[in-house]
Amino acid sequence: MNKTDTPVISVLMSVYNAERYVAEAIQSILGQTEGRFEFLIVNDGSSDASASILDRYAAQDSRIRVIHQENRGLIASLNLLLEEARAPLVARMDSDDVSRPERFAVQLAEMAARPEIAVLGTNTDELDADGAYFPCSDFHPEQPEDIRERLMVASGICHPSVMMRRDVIRALGGYRAAFRHCEDYDLWLRVSEHHDMMNLRDRLFLYRRSPDQVSEKHILVQAIGAACARYAAQQRRAGRPDPFEGATSLPSLDTIDAVLGTQGVGARMRLEVIDSVKYSRDAMTSGGLELMQAHLREGGTKHGFWRTAGRLVKLGMIPQALTLSYDLVRY
């Protein structure tokens, strides 16, 4: 495809210190059987060799355009890429994952056949940090009604696997700044209120699991944001204003009732978050234990908390297990 040709697909990828994996990710896009795309990449202030790797590939393939910027974060980078995209369809890609060669061809055919579909994900297999391959046995929900139901509990769509209609996403305001580390979940909830979303049963994407990924390092922030996104969706669906419209950050669970003028919302969200993070080592050392203690102090249910204490022992987190056990006896 020449630079003057209008691409059929705009591929959007943000890169931050991904020198270990980014070449493999790029090669998986350049190896697609459907080649009518532009490949837009933001180098989001990387301090490793990512920038030189990106520039080298851009010099070799005219479909690649690299935008270098100071670190602004994933949400700002993705919104910039949405503005820069020229194609009616945008395909997400992450810098540590791998797309199977037929991914774009299969997604493009489905989007052409189903104009009512605004977001189309795929099922996935997995890679570990060292590149070992793990086939998955679970499936994401596939049909729009099943996805809508699942979304009120969890995402159910692999963000970097999706192909989306650019105009739909832009009309909804793109990714919202307040929802750091769960920007995709908030977006899916908003999309699903106006448009259909689907997952292909085909496993066209290899998703990498590693200790450094966002869902591991920022699990507590992600869980709090997800609880806020669900609450906002409930308000919108009840015909009430979105409480976080225009916000650049979310209030803490301790202050959310005061900020929103509600009662009991913070306590309900806190219990949702605890249920999401109670077996995470990172979460229990970065505020999760304190959430559990606050819940117990206020007379919240103890159901399942002893099991959590036992799990903490198995994780080698003895001080945290003892603290939780003491509070279970005390309150």
Automatic annotation (TrEMBL):
<feature type="domain" description="Glycosyltransferase 2-like">
    <location>
        <begin position="10"/>
        <end position="172"/>
    </location>
</feature>
<comment type="similarity">
    <text>Belongs to the glycosyltransferase 2 family.</text>
</comment>
<protein>
    <recommendedName>
        <fullName>Glycosyltransferase 2-like domain-containing protein</fullName>
    </recommendedName>
</protein>
<dbReference type="InterPro" id="IPR029044">
    <property type="entry name" value="Nucleotide-diphossugar_trans"/>
</dbReference>
<keyword id="KW-0328">Glycosyltransferase</keyword>
<keyword id="KW-0808">Transferase</keyword>
<dbReference type="Pfam" id="PF00535">
    <property type="entry name" value="Glycos_transf_2"/>
</dbReference>
<dbReference type="InterPro" id="IPR050834">
    <property type="entry name" value="Glycosyltransf_2"/>
</dbReference>
<dbReference type="InterPro" id="IPR001173">
    <property type="entry name" value="Glyco_trans_2-like"/>
</dbReference>
